[in-house]
Amino acid sequence: MRSSSHCASDPARERAVSSTLRTEVVEDCRQWVVYLLLIDPEGITRRRLSAHRTEREALLTASLVQRAAHRRGRPPPDGDLHPG
């Protein structure tokens, strides 16, 4: 019988489980910018993903990123969104 009690107390694992990914679309210098927000108990990390000429394109990109994030699951505990 395997014991998983050591996993429950791992702070990196708890941070990954309690983190949330969101997207944000902001108008900036006549462009629409898509940001990825990683929200966890330690704070918010904001990363610029792309800029678009129209709000519609930016909203579509944000929607696709959200869907891909939900499909792939939680980010790695170290917060690296692009491993390798």
Percent helix, as a range, is 25-40%
Number of helices: 3
Main sheet: strand order: 1-2-3
Overall pLDDT: 77
Strand content: 25-35%
**Class inferred from helices and paired strands:** alpha+beta
H-E string: HHEEEH
**End-to-end separation:** 35 Å
Q: Biggest β-sheet, characterized?
A: 3 strands, antiparallel
Assign an overall shape: globular
Task: Compute the CA-based radius of gyration.
Answer: 16 Å
**What is the strand tally?**
3
Low-confidence stretches: 1-17
Q: What can you see in these coordinates?
A:
It is a single chain. With 84 residues, this protein is of the alpha+beta class. The chain has a domain at 18-71. It contains three helices and three strands; from the N terminus they run ααβββα. Strands 1-2-3 form a three-stranded antiparallel beta sheet, with helices on one face. β2 (31-40) and β3 (43-52) form a beta hairpin. The longest helix is centred in the last third of the chain and has 18 residues, at 55-72. It is globular. The termini are far apart.
